[in-house]
Design goal:
about 375 residues, alpha/beta, Rossmann fold, seven-stranded parallel β-sheet, six-stranded parallel β-sheet, about 45% helix, UDP_GlcNAc_Epimerase_2_dom
Length: about 375
Amino acid sequence: MLPTIAVIAGTRPEALKLLPVIDALRHGGVGAVRLIASGQHQTLFDQMLPDIAPDMELGLMQEGDPPGRFLARAAAVLAEALGHVDPALAIVQGDTATAYAGALAAFRLGIPIAHVEAGLRTASIAEPFPEELFRRAIARLATLHFAPTPRARDNLLAEGVASGAVHLTGNTGIDRLMSALEDPRPSPAAEALLSGIGDGRFALTTVHRRENRGKALEGVARGISKVAHAHALPVILPLHPAPDLQPLADMLCGDPLIQLSAPIDHAAIVRLLVRAALVVTDSGGLQEEAATLGIPVVVLRTRTERMEAVEDGRAMLAGSDPEAILSAAGEMLEKGRFPRSTLFGDGAAAPRIAARIAEWLRR
């Protein structure tokens, strides 16, 4: 009888990056995988259906929930769910509230924890907050640490994590990217957004992080508009559904060079990404994907846990200052496209993770 492995997710990035792991575990006969969905970002998570089908849907997010209230509820209810599943191992990914709550719940029950995308760090516990806090705390609780890059591995070792518990695997998000590139199915959402651009160049832009809300959002909006008009560069901006990001749409909706859209699925994002001349984003996943494909990136943050792309010249930090965004965009557009890279992975991270888990389960 195969051991049970619980996989915990609640956001679209978690689903994207855990789906290759789930597939590798199942296809390799490593364990009986049970996916527990917290419901942290239900609308965006549901875009992954039917590719990823939860075994348990908890629906924990309530409208107006502050982060602390969701975290407390999630830790309690996930403990109940894990107690019911009784897994040999619980897998969490990244640095979300769901990941931290899942790790807390598993640790409380004495269930070993595997952390996918372990070891990402900035130089400040406050940037980004609470994500930096969550991923550092998960490292104190986890048994298996799957580091996506040598830098992430070295961060964990510097923090005192035992070398035998740290495994360099690559990033499973690149596995998913490679699968999406090979998918022959058309993307109506991407085709609709590209129809007004034709064969011309454009910038793909996304904004969602907590540090770019409130007053910072005004600077981001002005910076995006400046880039569009200074370079006669149309911008495609799929909006995030968070209510406190609505002002971004209000500020940019009348700009003739900026095409706003409802949230789109990952397949559409990839179709746009391969065509884009520039990516302007605060998304960690898009930083990884764009760097892999050789698309220059302006990062709408002052710090990033993905410095590999910055140090390789494929990305520049700009924060939310409009002039800094404009300057960085000009420099990155002048550089143009880069060759493809394996800075963040080679598309085979999930099989490596499955193999390490299988080895650990046999002990």
